[in-house]
Amino acid sequence: MRRLAILTAGGDTPALNATIYGAVTRACQHKIEMYGIIKGFSGLLNPRVPHVHLNPLFTPIPELDPTRGGTILGASRDYVDVDDSEQIARIAERLHRLRIDGLICIGGDGTLNGMQALSDIVPTVLAPKTIDNDLGLNYRGEPDEWIRHAPHETVTDAIIKDGYPYTRKPSHHRFDLDQMVNYVTPGFATAVYVSASGVQRIRTTAESHRRIAIVEVMGRHSGYLALGAAYGQPDILLVPEHRLQIDMLVERIKEIYTLQKHCVIVCGEGIVDEHGQELGAEHASTDPAGNKILSGASEALRALLIQRLGDDYFTSKRRNESARAAIFTRKLGHTQRGGRPILFDRFYAAQLGGHAVDMLLRGMANAVAILQYTRQRGFFLSEAQANDFRDRWGYIHARLMHPSFYDPRSLRPSPVGIDYLLPIFNNALAPDDVEVLRTELFDPSHLTMPYHSVNVDIDKRIRYLSES
């Protein structure tokens, strides 16, 4: 292989540039050219295929900084339609004109779902990224537990994809952390760092004003981010994988509030009620990947608690004038996806990017670079076939947090959940992650100099295919 292409698809994460950097560095070692496709799959759908030569003279371009969040290539949520043979044929022709011998897609489960068609026209591998940590398996064979029902059939707790309801049958697998496939994805550690820090900052406000704070974190149907936010020491943790028991929750809040005059709750954006219905799914609209847009689990939970606790509970204690004034929400939102990646993400993202190049050189296609962990070996690189993640009907489901990670009675991480988090975060930060706050945040030049976007410099490097 003499020339490879790389793109970033789906939502941004803090470690994308680090993954690109690792891939480009490895390509330079093998004297392989690396082209970056602008704006993910959208760039391939563009007849002129905007692209950037990332390693002229086999040296990474200076704009490619692994400590910079986001992606210098830009990202989009456009995906290749696997059923559109004409579209795929046009992409194949464009890649041929660019003389691309292999393609690296940096993305999550949505990218992996759309990568199948490209693997039929050019060797393609995935370097994983997602802050949700939902790309992977709790154990091999997990996709076989999915059941697809007839269209329009009414099924409890079903996930609807392409008109078909999907449900999971009960698992009889004995869970072990060492058997997880893709233990953790780059972007997750930094998002947890932001989430835990946000919880700590909200704490002092709730504590000072005798209030109940509900902090909503991202993660959709997967509770990994909420689980990791336990590092911020919230009083209560609510995850999508366990149904909300409102009576028990209200009693627990009262216990905590009576004792310490405030309470901090962390909830995942995809938490569900006793009937399995998403609290935040107020609108039926979807994002470009087909996922239902969750419009506010924290606000729905706040309304529920206002009703259940009532004004008298707070006024009788002389702590607030009403339940509405006492209970407030904060969404950490996109702050979890942006900014400088911490050491764990930078290091392993670069390693996975380099490994993706090695996989192509070994002749692999339709495969995934993965980060494994065992108690004996620690973290190490490996790979898996994309079909290992697919159910019997070819669909790739987002990984849910294993139920054993959470204690639904204490509303806290379980011992297994703690054992899962410790290897990731014991050495997740480097001294420079802390030093950068001192040296860069309050740089006096920030007061006088405008922000200089890397997009300006990348735009000067973009090249296009000529019109055919």
From TrEMBL:
It is an enzyme of class 2 (transferase). SUPFAM superfamilies: Phosphofructokinase. Residues 3-135, 181-360 form the Phosphofructokinase domain. GO terms for molecular function: 6-phosphofructokinase activity; AMP binding; ATP binding; fructose-6-phosphate binding; identical protein binding; metal ion binding; monosaccharide binding. It is found in: Cytoplasm. It catalyses: beta-D-fructose 6-phosphate + ATP = beta-D-fructose 1,6-bisphosphate + ADP + H(+). Belongs to the phosphofructokinase type A (PFKA) family. This is 6-phosphofructokinase.
